[in-house]
Write a structure and sequence with these properties.
The chain is built from no helices and 6 strands. It is mostly beta strands. The chain has a domain of 57 residues: SH3 type barrels, CATH 2.30.30.
Length: 83
C-alpha cells in the first residue's frame, strides 16, 4: 500500500517534469500529491503530470528541509563506513 500525502504549495517553486526533464514553475496554491521522497527530493503528482521537487524547496510543500550530510559523515561512492 502506498502512502500519498496531499498538500497545497505554499509558494511558487521550480519543479522538473518527469520523464521529460523540462523545468516548470508550480504556482502557490496548487494541490499536489506527494507520492515519493528519495534522496531529499520529492516526486509529486500535480495537474499536468509527475514532477520532481528539490530538497531546497521542501518548504513549499510545508515540510522542513532535510539537512545535508556534513563532510565528516558523507561517504564517497564505493567507500565503506565501519560503524
Amino acid at each position: 500500500m502506498h502512502n500519498v500525502t496531499t498538500v497545497e504549495l505554499t509558494r511558487d517553486c521550480d519543479a522538473v517534469r518527469i520523464p521529460a526533464g523540462d523545468t516548470v514553475v508550480l504556482e502557490a496554491g496548487t494541490p499536489v500529491d506527494i507520492t515519493q521522497t528519495l534522496g531529499g527530493s520529492y516526486t509529486v503528482h500535480a495537474p499536468g503530470g509527475l514532477f520532481r521537487i528539490a530538497a531546497k524547496d521542501a518548504d513549499a510543500l510545508g515540510l522542513e528541509r532535510a539537512s545535508d550530510p556534513t563532510p565528516e559523515t558523507a561517504l564517497l561512492p564505493g567507500e565503506l563506513n565501519e560503524e
